Amino acid sequence: MPKGYKKENGYATSSTLGGKGYVEIAEVMNDEGFKMNHSTARNVFVNALIKVADEIADLYQLELTDKDLKRLAINPDFQDSVRGFLSELEIERPE
After folding, report:
1. How many Å is the maximal CA-CA distance in the chain?
2. Residue 73 region by backbone torsions, left for phi larger than 0, else alpha for psi between -120 and 50, else beta
3. Alpha helix (H) ranges present in the chain?
4. How confident is the model at residue 1 (pLDDT cuts 50, 70, 90)?
5. What are the tens digits of pLDDT across the range 44-76?
6. Which phi and psi (to 5°) does residue 76 adopt?
7. What is the pLDDT of residue 92?
8. Which residue has the higher pLDDT, 43 or 18?
9. For 32, what's the count of Cα atoms within 13 Å in the CB-facing half-sphere?
10. How far does CA 13 lie from the centroid of its chain?
11. 70 with 46: CB under 8 angstroms?
12. 83 in Cβ contact with 49 (< 8 Å)
């Protein structure tokens, strides 16, 4: 991206949402034996959010293009909404 470029809705990273940043995620994955760098961590994160966005679009019977789904997935407000929803779930987390 060009220097000084800012997305329409700003930027979100997993660290700004209360989690680990992409570099930290990549380090954890490397420690677990999976070769990964920060760019790959971001791509995996965004691709997962695209799948979530696609399921939500289907739920509401919306016809979104791949470009629209990616735009939605990288939107910080959407990411924060997904984080909020997931934080409300009662799930057993491994230690």
Report:
1. 42
2. alpha
3. 22-31, 38-59, 66-73, 76-88
4. very low
5. 999 999 999 999 999 999 999 999 999 999 998
6. -60, -35
7. 72
8. 43
9. 8
10. 8
11. yes
12. no
- CA distances 14 to 19, 31, 35, 50, Å, are 5, 19, 20, 15
Cβ–Cβ under 8 Å, residues 21 and 13: yes
Indicate the average pLDDT of the chain.
84
Residue 31: the pLDDT is: 97
Q: Nearest CA to 74 among 42, 29, 40?
A: 42
- Per-residue tokens: 89: 């779930």
Is 0.85 surpassed by the pTM of this model?
no
Amino acid identity of residue 55, one-letter, is E
Identify whether the C-beta of residue 6 lies closer than 8 Å to the C-beta of residue 73.
Answer: no
